[in-house]
Design brief:
The complex is a heterodimer of chains A (about 260) and B (about 280).
Chain A (H helix, E strand, L loop, with lengths): L1 E11 L5 E11 L4 E4 L6 H8 L7 E6 L2 E2 L6 H6 E4 L13 H11 L5 H14 L16 H13 L5 E5 L7 H18 L2 E6 L2 H7 L2 E6 L2 E7 H6 L4 H8 L14
Chain B lengths: L24 E10 L4 E10 L4 E5 L6 H9 L6 E9 L2 E2 L5 H7 L4 E4 L13 H13 L3 H14 L16 H14 L4 E5 L7 H17 L3 E6 L2 H7 L2 E6 L2 E7 H6 L4 H20 L2
Parallel strand pairs in B: 3-8, 3-9, 6-7, 7-8
Antiparallel strand pairs in B: 1-2, 1-4, 4-5, 9-10
Helix pairs in contact in B: 3-4, 3-5, 5-6
The chains are: A alpha/beta (about 260), B alpha/beta (about 280).
């Protein structure tokens, strides 16, 4: 089932050269999608269009088959939630965690007031945070825990799609492993489909079923992850795949 | 078992015995403290021989960058270094700026993660590069201009970059320009602190290959600081692993990647391998 679709979208800032041209991607339920490419390729802009945070200059974004009307579509707001890269800037430092996590419920008036506490507690449990996290403030948590708080805020209203911009790039590698596990688990238990912007092909391999490769505002290759990474066709994809740093475990001469 | 995590040394330096004179950099019992006495770096010791490449690896907050800053005598106000940092025979800990000026540039120079912090936004790249070359080699006029274009060529930058301001070139080009400035002083030791972390992965591969070639070409010693085990292990001979301010393991890069002995190093290697396995599964 198609959840979200960008159909031949283009985007340009006023008077500027296009950031995106003729981009089409489809988000299918249960198939995590990665948007990959280098800085300036247009990945984050495409994610913003899919989130309804910006309107395409040409083409359209469809949600459940209908053109997206951001700001007026409560069903969309509830179904598609964002997670950002930097867990230090995406959480209000002056609010306790339960206020942060319950904000989508309050903003969209979901559930009765006396249910909110329970839903927050249940969501914190789902992202692996202790119950006493609710009354604490963001500065009391590590980067990995903060990203769990950001994920809790995103999933508290039980969305169908999570749109995440580099959700694990700011984290240390050991923390990153655990966050990737959490995102996998949420996909399985909550029927949550992830759309992720990432420059890290290893993280993409671990999480995503489909990949769209962007270069200079256009999609140069897209398809199932195994096909795109296993036998990349476009030279740009080939270069990306070849540039991934590898651990050398053999004692032979280093690869050129 | 005490609460202290044991250090797993590759050789045990006996206390009291002076370092072998061959060491270019000899860090011995280096600690860095805040004004309130809190220790951010605890008793870090390692040596670097001329032409050797050492990787300093660890996660955020482990003290990697503090180690680099202490070696350069550039700790921010409010932090104090204790112990000993001997750089080509000069004691850095407690040294005044005049003594430091004699080693900075000539003996050691540095490249950091964000090249914009190393480049003056109001000065064309060529002029910025000419500064250290003029001071180090005393060149003027046409000879200086020729040296600038050679320096640009060495880091694979086109000559027109000399006339550009930092904001007019890409991130990868800026890092090459910063590298050219660091190399212009012909130092014996280059300290590179996360030099490719802010770059795209294809640009990272290019800059690493460039760094690798330039360091070998000049038989310069390299202290490469990073969080990405695959990147650091690929360019260096030896690794030193920092965890929360303490050195927990040192050894040959190959050995550490193949057989990490300290639990923390093992966690780092296993995490890196887990991601690599996911990638290998799809892109063999």
């Amino acid at each position: 089932m198609t959840l979200l679709e960008a159909r031949e979208v283009g985007f340009a800032y006023r008077g500027g050269t296009p950031v995106l041209s003729d981009v089409s991607v489809t988000v299918t339920a249960g198939r995590n999608l990665a948007l990959v490419g280098e800085s300036g390729a247009g990945k984050s802009t495409l994610l913003r269009l899919l989130l309804g945070l910006a309107r395409p200059s040409t083409g359209e974004v469809l949600f459940d088959g209908r053109p997206l009307r951001p700001g007026r579509d409560r069903e969309f707001r509830r179904s598609a939630q964002p997670v950002f890269q930097d867990p230090y800037s995406s959480l209000d430092p002056r609010q306790p965690v339960d206020r942060i996590v319950s904000e989508p419920l309050r903003a969209m008036r979901i559930g009765a007031r006396d249910e909110i506490g329970d839903r927050v507690a249940q969501t914190l449990r789902a992202v692996g945070l202790p119950a006493d996290a609710a009354r604490r403030y963001p500065h009391e948590f590590s980067g990995g825990q903060r990203q769990r708080i950001a994920i809790a805020r995103a999933i508290v209203c039980e969305p169908r799609i999570l749109l995440a911009d580099e959700p694990v790039s700011a984290l240390d590698v050991t923390t990153r492993v655990r966050l990737v596990e959490l995102l996998r688990e949420l996909k399985a238990t909550r029927e949550l489909t992830l759309v992720m912007v990432s420059h890290d092909l290893a993280v993409v391999s671990a999480l995503c079923d489909e990949i769209a490769v962007l270069d200079a505002g256009r999609i140069v290759e897209q398809g199932a992850s195994a096909a795109v990474l296993g036998s990349p066709e476009h030279p740009h994809t080939r270069r990306l795949v070849a540039s991934v740093p590898r651990l050398r475990r053999d004692t032979g001469p280093a690869a050129p | 078992m005490t609460g202290e995590k044991p250090m797993v040394p590759d050789r045990s330096p006996a206390p009291g015995i002076p370092a072998e004179p061959a060491a270019l950099l000899d860090v011995d019992g280096l600690s860095v403290r805040r004004a309130d006495g809190h220790e951010l770096l605890r008793g870090v010791s390692f040596t670097l021989a001329p032409g050797e490449r050492l990787g300093l690896i660890g996660e955020s907050g482990s003290g990697k960058s503090l180690t680099a800053l202490a070696v350069l005598g550039l700790l921010p106000a409010g932090l104090s270094a204790h112990g000993s940092v001997l750089l080509a025979g000069t004691q850095i800990v407690g040294a005044r700026d005049r003594r430091l000026d004699r080693v900075r540039g000539r003996t050691v120079s540095a490249v950091f993660q964000e090249p914009l912090t190393a480049l003056d936004p109001l000065m064309r790249i060529g002029r910025q590069l000419a500064g250290p070359i003029r001071r180090r080699r005393g060149l003027r006029g046409a000879a200086l201009r020729a040296a600038v274009s050679t320096a640009l060529d060495e880091v694979r930058l086109p000559e027109r970059v000399a006339g550009a301001y930092p904001h007019e070139i890409s991130g990868g080009q800026r890092q090459r320009a910063a590298l050219a400035m660091a190399l212009a002083c012909e130092p014996d030791l280059l300290i590179a602190d996360e030099p490719t972390t802010a770059l795209d992965v294809t640009v990272q591969a290019e800059v690493l290959a460039l760094l690798n070639g330039l360091v070998s070409g000049r038989s310069m010693a390299l202290l490469l600081i990073g969080h990405d085990l695959a990147v650091v292990a690929d360019v260096t001979d030896r690794l030193a692993v920092l965890e929360r301010g303490s050195l927990v393991e040192t050894g040959r890069a190959e050995d550490i990647v193949r057989e990490p002995r300290h639990p923390y190093t093992r966690a780092l290697v296993e995490s890196a391998e887990a991601f690599e396995a996911e990638f290998d599964r799809l892109a063999p």
